[in-house]
Amino acid sequence: MNPDTRAVSTRELPAGTPVIDADPFAEDVLAAPYKLHAEMREAGPLVWLSKYGIWASARHRECADVLKDYETFCSSAGVGLANFKTEPPFRPPSLVLETDPPEHTRARTALARALSQKAVTALQSEFEAQADQLIDRLLQQRDIDGVADIAIAYPLKVFPDAVGLNEEGRENLLAYGNLVFNVFGPDNRLRREALAISAEVGEWIMRHCERGALSLGGIGDDLYQAADQGLITAEEAGLLVRSLLTAGIDTTVGGIGNALYCFAQHPEQWDLLRRDPGQAKHAFEEVLRFEAPVQTFFRTSAKATELAGTAIAENEKILLFLGAGNRDPRRWPDADQFDITRRPSGHLAFGTGIHRCVGQRVAQMEGEIILRKLAERVERLEQTGPAIHRLNNTLRNLDSLPLRLHGA
Ligand code: OVM
Hints:
By secondary structure, the chain is α+β, with helices and mostly antiparallel strands. Helix 6 runs antiparallel to helix 7 and helix 6 (about 125-140) packs across helix 16. It has a single domain (about 20-405), classed as CATH 1.10.630.10. The protein has helices at about 25-30, 35-45, 60-70, 105-115, 115-120, 125-140, 145-165, 170-185, 190-210, 220-230, 235-245, 250-265, 265-275, 280-290, 320-325, 360-375, and strands at about 20, 45-50, 55, 75, 145, 295-300, 305, 310, 315-320, 380-385, 390, 395-400, 400-405. 3-methoxybenzoic acid (OVM) binds near residues 243 and 246.
């Protein structure tokens, strides 16, 4: 059934349930979501979204509690609005994102090995060299687009290189991530446009997940070696490469773009980072708290349960506003303030629990390196035009950020 037109108003809600009629996936809300986030957060720990007939939470505690209780709130029915038990998924489900234990555990183990601290540390010097080269070029250019020239250019070079892909057709990686994250949302324009290109882009992606498309010694090859060792099948290795290519690009593009946006908008915070570029890792975490690239994920109740005193039936969707939880004043003082001196740990931008981002060390390294090197070499990030957001049902991402780089 079309999730937009489900007859939901008839459901009998527990007495006192806060009802939100606004559509969090409306385009004006996606462009500026934080006002509605605050409304939902203040309405209660758990709210009912009447437009979709689902539960939602915009508070830090409840989002974290749901993510940690993977037995009650499962992922195998999909982590978007569509319920895989009643609507067939648009692509074979992810072996790691859209599964529960015990299936999840094996896939996760293979990915965690390929993305271990040791594997990530081995990438560091190349990631640093690529950042240096990029910044050399951009300081000559001076007037740049922070999104195209840094937030896209850097991750789209270093991460597919690390996975083992060749250079050709990498724009398909951006298109694919963008479309998968749109498909998590309701049946709106963004989702329909994503589905319209999913066959063609998906076919390109699947071809590049094959063993023959991946260079030896890369992260992708490591997953096929796990198949050689019998930990997973070769077919599973291909689908796990697909997970890397789905989750590993648009998310880090968003993180780096949002970082440039935060610092362009808060020059006093850039001055603080410039005084101690060693704080770049910490500062990137504050960016992720403040402007989480992945704003939302859903779970589905695997059994009847209770959350924050409210009864939830079996097989109901619950939408978790991670980006709103990250600005919950119950968890952080002055939560709506971008402040790199605060303690941002505990933010939900990587999720939490058994599905917490398995690639987070790669993402953190990309963000840390690019911010540290920019802070060492750029005195001022002057915003020379309007920041334009790229609307997506899940991601908070920029499309354009005109900048003038003032060399130090
Ligand atoms: C996957 C996948 C897709 C989207 C997001 C994600 C943030 C994972 O295909 O496994 O994690």
